[in-house]
Amino acid sequence: MSKSPVIAIDGPSGSGKGTIATRVAEKLGYSLLDSGALYRVLGIACHLKDIDLTDTAAVANLAKNLDIEFGRSGEGSVWLDGKDVSLVIRTDLGSDMASRVAAIGPAREALFERQLAFRKPPGLVADGRDMGTTVFPDAQLKIFLTASAQERAERRYKQLIGKGIDAILPALLRDLKERDRRDSERAISPLKPAEDAIVIDTTDLTIEQVVGQVLEHYVPA
Ligand code: C5P
Predict the structure, then answer these.
(1) Using CA atoms, how far apart are residues 161 and 156, in angstroms rounded to an integer?
(2) What pLDDT sits at residue 74?
Protein backbone atom coordinates (compact mmCIF):
# COMPACT_ATOMS: atom_id res chain seq x y z
CA MET A 1 0.00 0.00 0.00
CA SER A 2 1.42 3.42 -0.86
CA LYS A 3 2.00 5.81 1.98
CA SER A 4 -0.28 8.80 2.52
CA PRO A 5 1.00 12.07 1.04
CA VAL A 6 2.91 14.54 3.21
CA ILE A 7 3.50 18.25 2.76
CA ALA A 8 6.53 19.29 4.85
CA ILE A 9 6.64 22.93 5.94
CA ASP A 10 9.88 23.88 7.67
CA GLY A 11 11.49 27.13 8.71
CA PRO A 12 12.67 29.23 11.65
CA SER A 13 10.50 30.65 14.45
CA GLY A 14 8.15 33.35 13.28
CA SER A 15 8.38 32.41 9.59
CA GLY A 16 4.64 31.71 9.70
CA LYS A 17 4.92 27.91 9.47
CA GLY A 18 2.30 27.17 12.11
CA THR A 19 -0.38 29.40 10.62
CA ILE A 20 0.38 28.38 7.04
CA ALA A 21 0.48 24.66 7.88
CA THR A 22 -2.85 24.92 9.72
CA ARG A 23 -4.57 26.69 6.80
CA VAL A 24 -3.14 24.32 4.18
CA ALA A 25 -4.24 21.29 6.23
CA GLU A 26 -7.75 22.78 6.58
CA LYS A 27 -8.04 23.49 2.85
CA LEU A 28 -6.97 19.94 1.91
CA GLY A 29 -8.75 18.16 4.78
CA TYR A 30 -5.38 16.72 5.89
CA SER A 31 -4.17 16.11 9.45
CA LEU A 32 -1.61 18.40 10.99
CA LEU A 33 1.60 17.66 12.86
CA ASP A 34 2.97 20.56 14.91
CA SER A 35 6.31 18.91 15.66
CA GLY A 36 7.53 21.97 17.57
CA ALA A 37 4.77 21.32 20.12
CA LEU A 38 6.33 17.90 20.84
CA TYR A 39 9.69 19.53 21.62
CA ARG A 40 7.95 22.21 23.65
CA VAL A 41 6.04 19.63 25.72
CA LEU A 42 9.23 17.64 26.27
CA GLY A 43 11.06 20.80 27.36
CA ILE A 44 8.32 21.76 29.80
CA ALA A 45 8.12 18.17 31.11
CA CYS A 46 11.89 18.25 31.83
CA HIS A 47 11.41 21.55 33.63
CA LEU A 48 8.46 20.32 35.71
CA LYS A 49 10.17 17.04 36.58
CA ASP A 50 13.46 18.83 37.29
CA ILE A 51 15.43 16.70 34.83
CA ASP A 52 19.03 17.73 34.29
CA LEU A 53 19.46 18.26 30.52
CA THR A 54 23.03 16.94 30.65
CA ASP A 55 21.49 13.56 31.56
CA THR A 56 20.58 12.83 27.94
CA ALA A 57 19.42 9.27 28.70
CA ALA A 58 16.88 10.60 31.20
CA VAL A 59 15.61 13.17 28.68
CA ALA A 60 15.29 10.48 25.98
CA ASN A 61 13.53 8.15 28.38
CA LEU A 62 11.05 10.87 29.23
CA ALA A 63 10.55 11.61 25.52
CA LYS A 64 9.73 7.95 24.87
CA ASN A 65 7.20 7.75 27.66
CA LEU A 66 5.59 11.17 27.49
CA ASP A 67 1.83 11.05 27.79
CA ILE A 68 0.92 13.72 25.20
CA GLU A 69 -2.47 14.30 23.66
CA PHE A 70 -3.33 16.81 20.96
CA GLY A 71 -6.70 18.51 20.45
CA ARG A 72 -8.30 18.71 17.02
CA SER A 73 -6.04 19.91 14.16
CA GLY A 74 -5.48 23.65 14.24
CA GLU A 75 -6.95 24.06 17.71
CA GLY A 76 -3.49 24.16 19.29
CA SER A 77 -4.56 22.36 22.48
CA VAL A 78 -2.02 20.01 24.05
CA TRP A 79 -2.22 17.92 27.21
CA LEU A 80 0.69 16.46 29.20
CA ASP A 81 -0.19 13.74 31.72
CA GLY A 82 -3.83 14.81 31.35
CA LYS A 83 -3.09 18.48 32.18
CA ASP A 84 -3.67 21.26 29.67
CA VAL A 85 -0.23 22.71 28.84
CA SER A 86 -1.36 24.62 25.72
CA LEU A 87 -0.43 28.01 27.18
CA VAL A 88 2.73 27.21 29.13
CA ILE A 89 4.43 25.56 26.15
CA ARG A 90 4.04 28.84 24.21
CA THR A 91 5.80 30.96 26.84
CA ASP A 92 9.45 32.05 26.50
CA LEU A 93 10.34 29.28 28.95
CA GLY A 94 8.63 26.76 26.66
CA SER A 95 10.51 28.10 23.60
CA ASP A 96 13.84 28.08 25.39
CA MET A 97 13.43 24.59 26.86
CA ALA A 98 12.24 23.25 23.48
CA SER A 99 15.34 24.40 21.63
CA ARG A 100 17.55 22.97 24.40
CA VAL A 101 16.01 19.49 24.37
CA ALA A 102 15.91 19.63 20.56
CA ALA A 103 19.71 19.64 20.50
CA ILE A 104 19.82 16.27 22.31
CA GLY A 105 20.20 13.47 19.74
CA PRO A 106 18.61 10.63 21.75
CA ALA A 107 15.61 12.87 22.52
CA ARG A 108 15.11 13.56 18.80
CA GLU A 109 15.30 9.83 18.07
CA ALA A 110 12.70 9.12 20.73
CA LEU A 111 10.31 11.64 19.18
CA PHE A 112 10.93 10.38 15.64
CA GLU A 113 8.49 7.41 15.74
CA ARG A 114 5.79 9.53 17.33
CA GLN A 115 6.00 11.92 14.40
CA LEU A 116 5.73 9.15 11.80
CA ALA A 117 2.49 7.99 13.44
CA PHE A 118 0.77 11.22 12.32
CA ARG A 119 0.96 10.09 8.68
CA LYS A 120 -2.42 8.74 7.75
CA PRO A 121 -5.03 9.10 4.98
CA PRO A 122 -5.97 11.32 3.30
CA GLY A 123 -2.67 13.12 4.03
CA LEU A 124 -0.55 15.12 6.45
CA VAL A 125 0.83 18.63 6.67
CA ALA A 126 3.88 18.50 8.94
CA ASP A 127 5.37 21.67 10.37
CA GLY A 128 8.81 21.92 11.96
CA ARG A 129 12.51 22.26 11.31
CA ASP A 130 13.46 18.86 9.87
CA MET A 131 10.22 17.53 8.39
CA GLY A 132 11.57 17.59 4.82
CA THR A 133 15.18 16.66 5.64
CA THR A 134 14.81 13.91 8.25
CA VAL A 135 11.34 12.85 9.34
CA PHE A 136 9.53 12.76 5.98
CA PRO A 137 12.34 12.79 3.37
CA ASP A 138 9.86 11.30 0.85
CA ALA A 139 7.33 14.14 1.32
CA GLN A 140 5.42 15.00 -1.89
CA LEU A 141 6.07 18.69 -1.35
CA LYS A 142 8.73 20.39 0.77
CA ILE A 143 8.37 24.05 1.60
CA PHE A 144 10.91 26.11 3.54
CA LEU A 145 9.56 29.42 4.82
CA THR A 146 11.85 32.28 5.75
CA ALA A 147 11.45 35.93 6.77
CA SER A 148 13.93 38.49 8.07
CA ALA A 149 14.75 38.23 11.79
CA GLN A 150 13.34 41.74 12.34
CA GLU A 151 10.03 40.83 10.67
CA ARG A 152 9.78 37.58 12.65
CA ALA A 153 10.46 39.36 15.96
CA GLU A 154 7.83 42.00 15.09
CA ARG A 155 5.26 39.27 14.36
CA ARG A 156 5.96 37.67 17.73
CA TYR A 157 5.74 41.09 19.41
CA LYS A 158 2.32 41.81 17.89
CA GLN A 159 1.13 38.32 18.82
CA LEU A 160 2.11 38.80 22.48
CA ILE A 161 0.75 42.35 22.75
CA GLY A 162 -2.47 41.10 21.13
CA LYS A 163 -2.77 38.54 23.93
CA GLY A 164 -2.21 41.26 26.56
CA ILE A 165 1.30 39.96 27.38
CA ASP A 166 4.08 42.55 27.92
CA ALA A 167 6.93 42.29 25.45
CA ILE A 168 10.11 44.19 24.55
CA LEU A 169 10.97 44.06 20.85
CA PRO A 170 14.82 44.21 21.13
CA ALA A 171 14.74 41.40 23.73
CA LEU A 172 12.50 39.28 21.46
CA LEU A 173 14.86 39.88 18.54
CA ARG A 174 17.87 38.85 20.63
CA ASP A 175 16.17 35.65 21.88
CA LEU A 176 14.98 34.75 18.40
CA LYS A 177 18.50 35.13 16.96
CA GLU A 178 19.87 32.99 19.79
CA ARG A 179 17.31 30.22 19.08
CA ASP A 180 18.04 30.47 15.33
CA ARG A 181 21.72 30.03 16.08
CA ARG A 182 21.10 27.03 18.35
CA ASP A 183 18.73 25.41 15.81
CA SER A 184 21.04 26.03 12.82
CA GLU A 185 24.33 25.06 14.44
CA ARG A 186 23.30 21.88 16.23
CA ALA A 187 24.98 18.72 14.98
CA ILE A 188 21.82 16.66 14.57
CA SER A 189 18.98 17.68 12.22
CA PRO A 190 20.05 21.34 11.98
CA LEU A 191 17.60 23.86 10.59
CA LYS A 192 18.24 24.03 6.84
CA PRO A 193 16.13 23.63 3.72
CA ALA A 194 16.02 20.17 2.13
CA GLU A 195 17.80 20.15 -1.22
CA ASP A 196 14.49 19.69 -3.00
CA ALA A 197 12.60 22.26 -0.90
CA ILE A 198 10.87 25.30 -2.37
CA VAL A 199 12.00 28.34 -0.39
CA ILE A 200 9.40 31.09 0.13
CA ASP A 201 10.39 34.40 1.76
CA THR A 202 7.27 35.52 3.63
CA THR A 203 8.61 38.92 4.77
CA ASP A 204 6.36 40.93 2.45
CA LEU A 205 3.61 38.38 1.84
CA THR A 206 0.21 37.99 3.50
CA ILE A 207 -0.83 34.67 5.00
CA GLU A 208 -3.29 34.10 2.14
CA GLN A 209 -0.59 34.77 -0.45
CA VAL A 210 1.72 32.19 1.15
CA VAL A 211 -1.08 29.61 1.45
CA GLY A 212 -1.88 30.25 -2.22
CA GLN A 213 1.75 29.69 -3.25
CA VAL A 214 2.00 26.43 -1.26
CA LEU A 215 -1.20 25.07 -2.82
CA GLU A 216 -0.05 26.10 -6.31
CA HIS A 217 3.04 23.93 -5.88
CA TYR A 218 1.08 20.93 -4.63
CA VAL A 219 0.16 18.27 -7.14
CA PRO A 220 -1.65 15.44 -5.32
CA ALA A 221 -0.76 11.98 -6.65
O1 C5P B 1 8.20 25.42 15.86
P2 C5P B 1 8.40 25.83 17.28
O3 C5P B 1 8.89 27.23 17.45
O4 C5P B 1 7.22 25.54 18.15
O5 C5P B 1 9.56 24.86 17.82
C6 C5P B 1 10.14 25.04 19.08
C7 C5P B 1 11.56 24.51 19.07
O8 C5P B 1 11.54 23.08 18.87
C9 C5P B 1 12.45 25.06 17.95
O10 C5P B 1 13.14 26.24 18.34
C11 C5P B 1 13.43 23.92 17.69
O12 C5P B 1 14.52 23.99 18.56
C13 C5P B 1 12.65 22.68 18.07
N14 C5P B 1 12.16 21.92 16.91
C15 C5P B 1 13.03 21.06 16.28
N16 C5P B 1 12.58 20.26 15.27
C17 C5P B 1 11.31 20.33 14.85
C18 C5P B 1 10.41 21.24 15.46
C19 C5P B 1 10.87 22.03 16.49
O20 C5P B 1 14.18 20.99 16.62
N21 C5P B 1 10.91 19.53 13.87
Answers:
(1) 9
(2) 63
